[in-house]
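Work package 3, deliverable 3.1, input record:
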Amino acid sequence: MFERFTQTARQVVVRAQEEARALGHPWLGTEHLLLGILAQPEAPGVSTLTELGVNLDSARAALGQLVGRRGLGESDADALRTLGIDLDEVRRRVDASFGPGALDYPVRSRARRWLPWRRGQCVATRDVIGYLPFMPRAKRALERAGREAVARGDGHIGVEHVLLGLLDPKGNLAVELLRHLGPDAEVVRTRVLADLGKAA
Amino acid sequence: MSEAIDAAAAATSQDPRVGLRAVAVLRQLVERLEALQVDSARRYGWSWEEIGQALGVSKQAVHKKHGRR
């Protein structure tokens, strides 16, 4: 799948894995790919994001907020502290027993085990060291990146194509994340294409 | 000791906003822990009956809540 990827585009995927791990996420999603892209500010297309006010720090913070809505966040920890409960300690113990992310990303196991595209399925690989499994939308984004390259007549798949691939009209967490930070996916796409046209 | 007094004071906070919020989050935390433990028990081969007994509820109640998760 990655044969035509440039060195930097591969770096995006590697970095995305690291970002996912750092967050304790047992999967690789579009949100991590976006962080991976932002970690390459010199790459084509990424400066457009920076101009739109999206950078690695702001995206990380926004992801924390978005995901925080699902998991237990800082304000929840404060509330529990008033009861003398240390949420970090609870999380540490739960993760030790059930694997990283167990408390914040509850397993949707059994009933959905036969649906391989469900996020819960990834939990089975929680303990596996090595590549995290790509979530379907992340996979789709990379496939879209390939199509973007073909459409532009580029022989390689670069960071700019991965970025365009992430801007999926069908929506994904990366798109949600961008909207949270301001720019709409459609706006980003237009701007990126314009900037790439200028550079060419 | 002073920490324990602080915690006890907060838990019985006169301010309903503080007290109710703490209770709400605690409930959320309990729900998550229950889900993890029930899943784990099922993987260990426990029956719904046994899980219900351990949780102090009927097997129907526990199955209704966690069976289709």
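The mean pLDDT of chain B is 83.
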